[in-house]
Structure formats: C-alpha cells, structure tokens
Design brief:
The protein is mainly alpha-helical. It folds into 3 domains: about 50 residues, no CATH class; about 160 residues, no CATH class; about 90 residues, Herpes Virus-1. A 3-stranded antiparallel sheet has the order 1-2-3. Strand 2 and strand 3 form a beta hairpin. Helix 3 packs antiparallel against helix 6 and helix 4 runs antiparallel to helix 5. The radius of gyration is 36 Å and the shape is elongated. The N terminus and C terminus are likely disordered. Bound molecules: zinc ion (2 copies).
Length: about 325
C-alpha cells in the first residue's frame, strides 16, 4: 500500500473516488482512501512551518566551520571522562537554574509589574531582561546535553561531538549572550546597591537579590567542579608546570666521581653539557645513573635544584633501565 508521506501535497481529484466505499475503483485499498480524504489539508501550512522550523533549528545547532578553537575542546582532549562529567554537571545545574529563575521571574512580574513601576530603579526591567537572556540560553544547554548523550549511545568520540557543537552558530550566539548577561548582571548589582526601599513593591528588592545570589552560586559551582575534576589545569585550561624537585645532598654525594683522562670517553673533545666547556685532564666529574657525566661542581649545583639529568631528564633516584655500572671511583 502506498503510504502518504507527512506534509505531502494531496491531489484534490483523489477525494472524488471516496464515495465508492470498499475497494476503490483505481485499485487502492480503503485505508489509503481514508488517509487521502480525511487528512487535515488545512494543517499543511502548519506542517510546513514545523518542518521549516526544524530545518532552521538543525542548521543553527550544526557546525558551520571545520575547526572549533573553543578552549572546551582542549579540555575534552586532555581528559574526555572528566570533561564529560564537568559539562554534564554544569549544563544540568545551569539549565535547571535558568528554568527556575525564568519561572520565578515570570510569576513575580505578572503579579507585580504595575506596582513595581514606581520604584526609583527600574528593577522590573532588569528582571525582565535577565529572564529573557536566561530563556535564550536554555535550548543551547539542553541540546548540547542531548547531543552528548547521542554521541555516548552511538559510541562516537566526545571530542568530535564537542568540537562540532562548539563550531555551531548556536554556541557562538550563546557565548555572546553570556557576555551581555555578565554586563547586565553588573548593572543589576549597581542598581540594587543604590536602590532605596520601594514601598509600593517591597518584594522586587528581595527578588533581584535572590536572582543575583543564584547566578553567583552557579559560577561558584562551575569553578569548584572544574578545580575538582581538573586539578592539574588552571581555569583557562592550561596545564600547570610540573613542580621541579631537587635531590637531597646525600643522594648527590652517593653518585660516583671519576677523574677525567684522555681515554675516559671515546669522543676527542668531551665537554660538560651544563657549562659547555671542555673537560681538562684531572678534573673531577660526576657520573649520573643514566650514564651522562658533568663537572662535579656543575652536576651538584644542578641536582640541588632538579634531581633530573639535564640531558635525558632521567631522575637520579629512578630505576635505571640501561643498567650502567659505575666505574671504580678514582
Ligand atoms: Zn660543567
Ligand atoms: Zn642523562
């Protein structure tokens, strides 16, 4: 049986054969006729609108450039599991926070809009704008979560998902809205601090304070979450430099010493990689477990700052893989 596709244009002449009843004259069965005759033709513009909206939404949330330079992609690349937990927590917390704030503001403004008109600071307009900015962010957060969930079910990489979503117009728009929200937020704090009591509408002061506290709480949660999940990264996503650990004096003095002679090394002109000067006959050299050698004074000074060989970065207290056996100390 031919299936009538959703949104398909129906041929008007098809309705004329409906009165035949039972099997239609053109051989198609009754179900198709019923579908053709009674499909709500008047809904077609509505269906077209829905289809157009879904196409626009789909392109809005799809990448429109090959490359995303968002710092979030770097964070995901370093640790996909921790990044997944971080994005989920922040998106759910701020998504639900936005829903609660929008609902509370909407109810409050509907009830007290005209009463709050007499206050000396336009806090009702601040609340309305803040609510609208939050509403704009909600779809981006939940679509991002849904895309991550889809990628997880399909077993595809999180990095590809985040890279694709952060290259979409929706993500860029969301970042611009966030920037504007920040400016608006600062303005709200200034108004609240300078607002005198509003006798006609005392609730608006408390409402604005509650919205501000909620926004600060969201920022704190995101920051704490990031620090807990990525202790090795700073807040801009950069890796903190590893700590340089020096060797203990007895570890240094336990390393063998050799006296330089012309036949000690195969190279004609052996030199110290720390001070870059050539060894002279009779000079005392420190030999590290990795087999590299340096002037005693150069090696000892270096090792007090870092216990790693300046040439190969092998730590002097780490297991030596090459099994170098120290020569007899002269
Ligand atoms: Zn040296
Ligand atoms: Zn070495």
């Amino acid at each position: 049986m031919a299936v009538v596709a959703e949104g398909e244009e129906f041929a008007p002449q098809a309705t004329s054969s409906s009165s035949a009843g039972g099997v239609a004259v053109d051989g198609s069965d009754e179900t198709e006729l019923v579908a053709r005759c009674y499909s709500p033709v008047e809904l077609l513009p509505h269906r077209r609108l829905v289809r157009w909206c879904s196409e626009v939404a789909s392109s809005f949330f799809s990448p429109n450039s090959e490359h995303s330079d968002d710092p979030l992609v770097d964070v995901v690349r370093r640790d996909p599991q921790a990044a997944s937990r971080f994005i989920r927590t922040v998106m759910i917390f701020s998504g639900l926070g936005s829903v609660v704030v929008c609902a509370s503001c909407a109810i409050f403004l509907v009830l007290y809009w005209s009463r709050c008109g007499g206050c000396d600071r336009p806090l009702r307009w601040w609340l309305l704008m803040h609510m609208m900015l939050q509403v704009m962010q909600i779809p981006v957060r939940f679509v991002f979560l849904a895309k991550m969930k889809t990628a997880e079910i399909a077993g595809s990489s999180l990095e590809a998902c985040v890279s694709s979503f952060t290259a979409s117009p929706a993500w860029r728009a969301s970042k611009n809205v966030s920037l504007f929200t920040y400016g608006w937020f600062v303005l709200g704090i200034v108004w609240v601090v300078n607002a005198g009591g509003c006798t006609a509408c005392p609730g608006i002061y408390r409402m604005t304070i509650a919205v501000i506290i909620q926004a600060v709480a969201r920022a704190v949660v995101a920051l704490v979450c990031f620090r807990l999940l990525f202790p090795q990264l700073d807040t801009a996503g950069r890796v903190e430099a590893p700590k340089v650990e020096g060797a203990e004096p007895d570890q240094i003095s336990a390393l063998p010493l050799v006296r330089f002679t012309t036949n000690l090394f195969s190279e004609d002109a052996a030199s110290c990689a720390v001070c870059l000067s050539e060894y002279e006959l009779g000079e005392s050299l420190r030999r590290l477990p990795c087999g590299h050698h340096f002037h005693r004074r150069c090696a000892d000074k270096w090792l007090r700052r870092s216990k790693r060989c300046p040439l190969c970065m092998h730590a002097i207290d780490a297991e030596c893989e090459h099994g170098w056996k120290p020569k007899k100390v002269i």
